Amino acid sequence: QVQLQESGPGLVKPSGTLSLTCAVSGGSISSSNWWSWVRQPPGKGLEWIGEIYHSGSTNYNPSLKSRLTISVDKSKNQFSLKLSSVTAADTAVYYCARDRVGVAGPFSYWYFDLWGLGTLVTVSS
Amino acid sequence: SSELTQDPAVSVALGQTVRITCQGDSLRSFYASWYQQKPRQAPVLVIYSKNNRPSGIPDRFSGSSSGNTASLTITGAQAEDEADYYCDSRDINGNYRVFGGGTKLTVL
Q1: Which helix (H) or strand (E) is B96 found in, with range?
Q2: According to the model, what pLDDT value does residue A107 have?
Q3: Does residue A116 sit at the B interface (CB-CB below 8 Å)?
Q4: A50, A64, B9, B10: which one has the fewest Cβ atoms less than 10 Å from its Cβ?
Q5: Does A60 touch chain B if contact means CB atoms closer than 8 Å?
Q6: Tens digit of pLDDT for each residue in B24-52?
Q7: Mean pLDDT within A49-59
Q8: In the prediction, which pLDDT does A104 show?
Q9: Which residues pair with B90 in a beta bridge?
Q10: Sign of the alpha-carbon dihedral angle for A77, A55, B94, A20
Q11: CA distance B96 to chain A (A)
């Protein structure tokens, strides 16, 4: 079955760039899905970061958009996150997730049906 | 501030029924999805497309939607249902995703 695995440095210095990769195994990243990043600061709720389609189309959280780049590498079956100018507020567990979409009558629906285990990134000097 | 509003905490007696709600204007156009998260674990999808359960989710979990409110109902809550629950949908224009602030469910 399809699995997601996040990887990247666990410690980033303030003002630096946070870089993470999500490897997709057991399936193709070019399937008809969006792929998202979600984060969770310690003791707080979930925050959606952004999403990418295999074509390279992206949507970003408006609050992070100016610092954020999400990209896809179809040859490696993975997608990546870069968040620049980080501060302690960016300390969080970062998850990658598979994003599904459908239509039911007049409604659309989106859901994350598959998640990685998450990786803790700490911003500290 | 979140565009989806959830009660921060809810409690239920073992075996009883509990409803967790999620409010937001975007829910008039987009169905919410619901996730269960236990400590130190990744979230798990429990309901999508108003009232669909992924394989492996017990049928005591159900969803509904009316107007600007989505609800997750647990009928006959079990001790293992104690967790944080998050709703999720698109923003009102469909441009990005939003999560509710989460509801901590305590099973007494």
Answers
A1: none
A2: 86
A3: yes
A4: B9
A5: yes
A6: 999 999 999 999 999 999 999 999 998 99
A7: 95
A8: 85
A9: B97
A10: positive
A11: 6
Q: Which residues of B touch A107 (CB under 8 A)?
A: 29-31, 50
Closest CA to B87 of B51, B52, B47: B47
Amino acid identity of A113?
D
- Asked if the C-beta of A7 comes within 8 angstroms of chain B's C-beta atoms, the answer is no
Give the pLDDT of residue A18: 98
Tell me the per-residue pLDDT of A60-82, one tens digit each, with 9 for 90 and over: 999 999 999 999 999 999 999 99
B96:A48 CB<8 A:
yes
Tokens (6 digits) for B18: 């509990």
Burial B33-46 (b: 16+ CB within 10 A, else e): bbbbbeeeebbbbb
pLDDT tens track for B46-81: 999 989 999 999 999 999 999 999 999 999 999 999
**Closest residue of chain B to A104, computed from CA coordinates:** B49
Instruction: Tell me: pLDDT of A54 over 80.
Output: yes
Interface of B with A (CB under 8 A): 2, 29-31, 33, 35, 37, 42-45, 48-50, 54, 84, 86, 88-90, 94-102
